[in-house]
Amino acid sequence: MAPQVAMGPGLQRRLMLLLLLPLLLVSLINIGYDVRLADIATNQQDKQLAALAPSLADSVVAKGNSERDGVGLLMSPAVGEFLREKHDLAAFALLNSEGRVMLGEEWLGAYPPSSHVAEFSSEERDGVTYRIVSQRFDTAAGDLTVRIADGSDPRQQWMHGLWYKVFWPNLLLAIVVAFAVNWAVRRALRPLLELKVAVEGRSLRDLSHLNPLGSPDEVRPLVESINRLFDLVNAQAESQRRFVADAAHQLRTPLAGLQSQVEAWAQALEGQSEITLTTDQVLKLRQATRRTSQLANQLLALSRADVGTTGAQPSQKVDLKATCETILEEQLAHAASKGIDLGLEAQPVRADGYEWLLRELLANLVDNAIRYTPAGGRVTVRCGRRGAYPLGPLQPFVEVEDDGPGIPPQDHDKVLQRFYRLPGSVGDGNGLGLAIADEIARLHGARLSMEQGAYGKGLRIGMVWPEKL
Predict the structure, then answer these.
(1) Which of 460, 443, 454, 466 is nearest to 382 (CA)?
(2) Which of 147, 163, 179 is the endpoint of a domain?
(3) How would you classify residue 209: left for phi > 0, otherwise alpha for psi between -120 and 50, otherwise beta?
(4) What is the DSSP string of 218-259?
(5) Which of 58, 266, 348, 356 is the most exposed place for a label (fewest CB within 10 A)?
(6) Alpha carbon of 171 to those of 14, 157, 178, 414: distances in Å?
(7) 464: part of which helix (H) or strand (E)?
(8) 150 has which bridge partners?
(9) Is residue 195 part of a domain?
(10) 156 and 44 in one domain?
(11) What is the pLDDT of residues 224-275, one digit of tens each?
(12) Sign of CA dihedral 138, 142, 145, 151
């Protein structure tokens, strides 16, 4: 079945209107034509009856003295032939001024016309619709009303059942055709609907080509145009990624040399008992170069944490415990310099992912924790298995917990934005660490989770691998 995706007031609705409106117009024309034919038949029948009425009036003769005996009839040849041909589908009656039948069929009794002009009407009797002419005449027996009925024309029967025989069948046909056209249009537009679903279901970073061979000839140029647009956007994005990567790479080398020189000067000056202005300037310069070097490294990490970078590389089974141990060794000196107890609680566990990106994620989380945790605090790196949601199956996880100032719950989403820092934050961070970690978590199909640390203080932040479908 075609996907039930509404295309709004677009191509599908226009096709429905263009197909159904002509069908509706044809149905209306057909009904009008049938009604016109019935009117023509009725007019012809009326003319015949109108011509017979004077002949029947001329056939009346006076007879006897009583009212009923006083009316006789010498049937004219035209009226007699009409009654013989129609058999029991024709009838006549002669009415007095009070509408009582003097001669003929009792069921044709009616109130006389007010004038001598012929009047026509239709009446149904025993399933037959009769066309009746009524006209007053001054006859040999006085003022009488002549009524002649003809029920032999089948078109008159059809005219009486017009609503049942024409309108309702045409309405039913229109409904059936509407459903058939709707099904046909949906089926014909299925390639467009599938193309719409395929484009809407893509992530923002998926710029791979659509398959033009799966589309009809009329849609294929559109698919090829979309693919060319994807190529242009992908080329522009790749150019931007190269720019960021090249800029960060170019910054690393001179900043590393500058930092090494400043570090040497700072170590020499720190040994002096008396700090001079020159020493203070050198220490500030060291701090600036450290921050700039960190920024360059983070920009490089941010440019690498991209689907386009990892898409060509297959994921692998990563030993999370070994990765945590490596990060712990790298950050021990940093933690010790601030008097922070850096610990590890790791269980053997492996997870699908990119090892170098997971190292970058953990490095940023641990660096952030050490940077904002006051001296004498604790930072713990963990890995193992837990549920991605309550009562769910156990999945690999990594997390970092500290007992620092923490992050208010209302700011959890904000700190994941690039270059955002909480008002009043201490330290010299750039506001990129958590943004990089969140980007890496997204590449692994997860999100960073944040909550308060143990005893209601600090921050516990990490990611849990999603369950495989």
Answers:
(1) 460
(2) 163
(3) beta
(4) TTHHHHHHHHHHHHHHHHHHHHHHHHHHHHHHHHHHHHHHHH
(5) 348
(6) 22, 21, 10, 61
(7) strand 459-464
(8) 90, 131
(9) no
(10) yes
(11) 888 888 888 887 777 667 656 656 665 666 677 677 767 776 776 666 655 4
(12) negative
